[in-house]
Amino acid sequence: MKEIPRYRITLDAFGARPKTLLSCIDFIMTLCQTIGVNVRAFQAYEVKDIDNPDIEPGISISIIFLESSMSLHTWTAKEQASLDVFSCKPFKRNPIIKIFRMYFKPAIKTEITINFPLKSCEQIEEGPWVEKKI
């Protein structure tokens, strides 16, 4: 049986600027357009901290596309954002990294975890982030 290729990138931003639900939806749709995926299902939620109701809500967005999925989670109180893109269709990582860093403007760092077939890896642009390859 032939193995199906899998492509994945996970980005975690620390010191990320808080965002509204609508701006996070705009961010996700920009990413979908950038990597050229066909959106099939979409869910977006504001997530309130019931122990701290005065804190701005976090955001959770899940996208199912023909080629697999994408999710975004933000934690306003902790100033963190996490993006996970998983696909059976190859996509370029650098535009995703650039848009993510430009949008969330992490003050501390961005951690990047990559799981790509070796033959399809391209050079990742230089930047002040921690890179972990699986």
Describe the structure.
With 134 residues, the protein is an alpha+beta fold. The chain has one domain (7-133): S-adenosylmethionine decarboxylase, CATH 3.60.90. It has 2 helices and 7 strands, in the order βαββββαββ. A hairpin with a 2-residue loop joins β3 (58-65) and β4 (68-75). α1 (21-35) runs antiparallel to α2 (93-104). The protein is globular, with a radius of gyration of 15 Å.
List the helices and strands and how they pair.
Blueprint: E1 7-14, H1 21-35, E2 39-47, E3 58-65, E4 68-75, E5 80-87, H2 93-104, E6 109-115, E7 130-133
Parallel strand pairs: 6-7
Antiparallel strand pairs: 1-5, 1-6, 2-3, 3-4, 4-5
Please give a quick description of this structure:
The chain has 134 residues and is an alpha+beta fold.
| CATH H-level homologous superfamily name | S-adenosylmethionine decarboxylase
The helicity comes to: 10-25%
**N-to-C terminal Cα separation, in Å?**
24 Å
Q: How many whole angstroms does the radius of gyration measure? A: 15 Å
Instruction: Note the overall shape.
Output: globular
Topology, number of strands = 7
Name the poorly predicted regions: 118-123, 126-134
Spatial order of the strands in the main sheet? 2-3-4-5-1-6-7
What is the highest CATH level, the class?
Alpha Beta
CATH topology: S-adenosylmethionine decarboxylase
* Integer count of domains: 1
**What kind of sheet is the major sheet?**
7 strands, mixed
Order of helices and strands: EHEEEEHEE
Indicate the CATH architecture: 4-Layer Sandwich
